[in-house]
Write the structure tokens for this entry.
Amino acid sequence: MKNEVSICREVPCASSPLNRRMVRLDNVSKQFNGARKITALNNITLDIDRGEIVSIVGPSGSGKSTLLNLIGTLDRPTTGSIRIDGQDLSSLNDPNLTLLRREKIGFVFQFFNLLPSLTCLQNVGLPLHLRGWAGSMVRERARALLDLVGLRERAEHLPGEPAHPRSYMSHEFQPAFRRVE
Ligand SMILES: Nc1ncnc2c1ncn2[C@@H]1O[C@H](COP(=O)(O)OP(=O)(O)OP(=O)(O)O)[C@@H](O)[C@H]1O
Ligand SMILES: [Mg+2]
């Protein structure tokens, strides 16, 4: 396998409206200038439409995380341009990038990054709270999302807490979230 990232596209769902470009990268490169200069990404051009499911694959060190960090607006490219839902990221300052992340991007991190003092339900609902949703709507939506992934009974649990002494073993090996990377 070549030491570079590849993009794998799944067949999009028939019901998805695919007429909207959600992600556009134009000749994006990213260099890290440490003790030695590393070109993590070299001239990536990529379009992802609404409803598409896309995997970024490649060997270790090929730039997958770097690419996800750029698309997730957590880092900026050295050269090239990135648009998310039509907005050019280079035109946004940090507060506006924070707003864009809050409205448009969901992250599932490999190391969870759940807030330990909030319950499972509160962790799932947190981004909606930050968007200003009413508490009852946040809880309703967060419950629906937990239902969707079979975690309804963990709603009131703290992240480190086992579900029930008798079901401890099965939950121990079923973490709430996995980073899709
Ligand atoms: N902050 C950084 N400073 C310096 N070099 C970095 C930094 N982040 C990534 N790199 C380098 O950029 C290249 C791409 O790294 P990246 O983490 O994106 O690869 P990856 O495909 O996600 O690898 P893995 O499969 O191991 O997670 C590597 O050579 C890595 O060492
Ligand atoms: Mg990585």
User: Anything to note?
Assistant: Residues 64-65, 181 surround magnesium ion (ligand 2) (CB under 6 Å).
